[in-house]
Every structure is written in structure tokens, then in C-alpha cells.
Design brief:
Layout lengths: L2 E2 L8 E7 L4 E5 L2 E2 L19 H6 L4 E4 L21 E4 L2 H4 L7 E2 L18 E2 L5 H19 L2
Antiparallel strand pairs: 1-2, 2-3, 3-4, 5-6, 7-8
Length: about 150
């Protein structure tokens, strides 16, 4: 089921992922066009135990030039110095998967669902899923600042 681009592969599909009251989440590969956060579709809700500041400090932020030969788009990037998107700042999926696995869509082995480090498939990062960790880190740092101010 779905609309495929280029070839009939799950990597090239737009699928209907769920049906809701008045909205449907659509997927391009693994990226959603809309992101639901409705309490009614969640269960076992509790405060996170993640040490967000420590987690974020483990991530290496890198500068890089986009080098995807299939990407022929033009970008409104004032820093663009080369074709295919120019200079960017970001993260490397293979480096962060062990620290924030919930945001990395890595290729998986069909039989075990373990990460397939040898796969030729492209790894993706769902950055929108990092936002709650960023919010938690700001809360942790704000609490530390408040404690210092009250000391």
C-alpha cells in the first residue's frame, strides 16, 4: 500500500500510517508530514528520567558540505558554496544512534531488527523527536541557575 517514487521500495514510499478524527498522518519514508502529540493516543505517561544535559553533551555537532548526488535542488542558503546544498551544521546519524536511538532511523536487519551497520541504505535523523530532550535540558539548566541564584 502506498505511493512509490522511483522504485517500489519502502524507502521511496508515502504511506497512510494512521487514521484519526479529522486528520491522517502521512509518511515520506519514515518522516511524518504531520506530528501528533494528542494525549488520547498515548498511554503510560510519566515524567522522563533522561538526564538531557548529559545526553546532549555526548552529541558531536559538525559542520559539513552536503554531498548527495541525487539532490539537485537549489537552496536559499546564504552560505551555499558548493552544489547540493552548500555548508551545513548538524549531527551524524551513525555517531548519535547509541546516545539518542529514538531519533535515528537506521537500516535494520529483517530477521532480528538489529541495526544493520553494513547496509547501503541511508540513515535518517528525525530531529523533531529531539525537541523534548532539548526542552528537558533547558529545564535542567534553568534549575541549576535558579539554585545558584538562591545559594
Amino acid at each position: 500500500d502506498g505511493l512509490y517514487f522511483s522504485s517500489a521500495s519502502d524507502n521511496n514510499a508515502i504511506n497512510i500510517g494512521s487514521h484519526g478524527s479529522g486528520s491522517t498522518t502521512l509518511y515520506i519514508g519514515n518522516a511524518t508530514i504531520t506530528v501528533s502529540s494528542d494525549e488520547r493516543i498515548k498511554k503510560n505517561i510519566e515524567n522522563t528520567k533522561i538526564n538531557a544535559t548529559e545526553t546532549l553533551n555526548k552529541l558531536r555537532v559538525v559542520d559539513f558540505e552536503w554531498d548527495d548526488p541525487s539532490d539537485e535542488g537549489s537552496y536559499n542558503n546564504k552560505n551555499a558554496r558548493v552544489s547540493h546544498g552548500g555548508q551545513w551544521t548538524g549531527l551524524v546519524a551513525q555517531e548519535i544512534v547509541n546516545h539518542v536511538p529514538h531519533i535515528v532511523n537506521a537500516p535494520r536487519k529483517e530477521d532480528t531488527l538489529e541495526i544493520d551497520y553494513e547496509s547501503d541504505d541511508t540513515w535518517f535523523v528525525d530531529f523533531e523527536h529531539l525537541v523534548p530532550t532539548l526542552v528537558k535540558a533547558v529545564q535542567e539548566l534553568s534549575a541549576k541557575v535558579e539554585a545558584l541564584e538562591n545559594a
